[in-house]
Design goal:
Blueprint lengths: L12 E5 L20 E2 L2 E2 H11 L4 E6 L4 H6 L4 H9 L3 H11 L3 E6 L6 H6 L2 H4 L4 E4 L3 E3 L5 H12 L2 E7 L9 E7 L5 E9 L10 E9 L2 H7 L11 H9 L9 E5 L4 E3 L3 H13 L2 H17 L7
């Protein structure tokens, strides 16, 4: 193992692309970033930052775009609001408001034009430098009890290169994701990635293991992204850059490994899954479940739907 490892520099930085237009949630996202849509009473993006921090990544760079100023405001201090809550002696809400501004060291870089996830990641090159880093997509929320990101960092420390999170999906869903060709390792939850295909037709997918929105990238990805031509959809795809790194040895920024994730993932990128996420999070809240769950059962029964506890 030791002779195949690249430098095991610690992963301390996270890049979170938030420049997307959120067109699937129009008109709500006409002036409100999709990342600021609430999951009960907390915007989705805060859960993502909390996940990064829980994995030890307290240096967080957000790749923003136009109309995303409210994200920066959310993670900034709100002195007038804090003073008003303090005057009312509303300590619980005061602490909740302060929490987001004290989570991490937040930095921001603007992506001038929407040229794809790969281009968004490339915008972080100056901040990240020659270090491995995490990429977290805001559409994917990982269950708070999962330790996916920590496990991915461990795999990077063991094998070097880059690490992607993979989740098995139904064959009819593979065309919605980047999919991986994989080879087993001695660890049951770790595979070697031999190829990657962005959103393949179902009959051309190399497997049913799809990339979900968590990555640990070797800094060599920046060099590859800088010369990667636009791919599917006319965008620079991170998948294409990782595909090249998967063919490289450890001295050139490779290889690529995958962590097989079988835990709880919430996809907030479409309306139905967003609604499911809100309901599940509400049901898990001790302060809400006692009142919300009986109402939900009654509502479902009233509509004549078959639901099991």
């Amino acid at each position: 193992m030791a002779d195949t490892r690249r430098s095991v520099t610690s992963v301390t930085k996270a890049v979170i692309p938030v420049a997307g237009l959120g067109t699937r949630f129009l008109p709500a996202t006409k002036s409100t970033p999709k990342e600021m849509l609430p999951i009960v009473d907390k915007p989705a993006i805060q859960y993502v930052v909390e996940e990064a921090v829980s994995a030890g990544l307290e240096d967080v760079l957000m790749i923003t775009g136009r109309s995303k100023r409210s994200i920066e405001d959310h993670f900034d201090r709100a002195y007038e609001l804090e003073e008003a809550l303090r005057a009312k002696d509303d300590i619980e809400r005061l602490n909740a408001v302060r929490e987001s501004s004290e989570l991490a060291q937040l930095h921001y870089v603007r992506q001038g034009e929407p040229r794809g996830l790969g281009h968004a990641v490339l915008c972080g090159a100056a901040h990240v430098g020659d270090e491995p880093f995490a990429v977290l997509l805001g559409d994917d929320l990982i269950g708070a009890r999962e330790a996916l990101l920590k496990r991915m960092i461990e795999v990077r420390q063991t094998y070097g290169g880059s690490v992607i999170a993979l989740m098995e999906v139904e064959p009819e869903q593979v065309s919605l994701y980047g999919c991986a060709a994989i080879r087993a390792t001695d660890e049951t939850d770790v595979v070697t990635v031999t190829d990657l295909v962005e959103k393949p037709p179902a009959d051309q997918a190399p497997s049913n293991w799809a990339i979900i929105g968590r990555y640990i990238c070797d800094p060599a990805v920046f060099e590859v992204l800088g010369k990667t031509p636009p791919g599917r959809g006319g965008e620079i795809q991170l998948t294409d850059a990782l595909r090249e790194l998967a063919q490289r040895g450890p001295e050139e920024g490779g290889p690529v490994h995958g962590v097989l994730f079988r835990g709880q993932r919430y996809d907030t990128g479409n309306k139905v899954d967003y609604l499911r996420t809100v309901v599940e999070f509400a049901c898990d809240r001790p302060d809400l479940a006692a009142e919300f769950l009986p109402w939900l059962r009654g509502f479902v029964a009233e509509r004549g739907l078959d639901v099991r506890e």
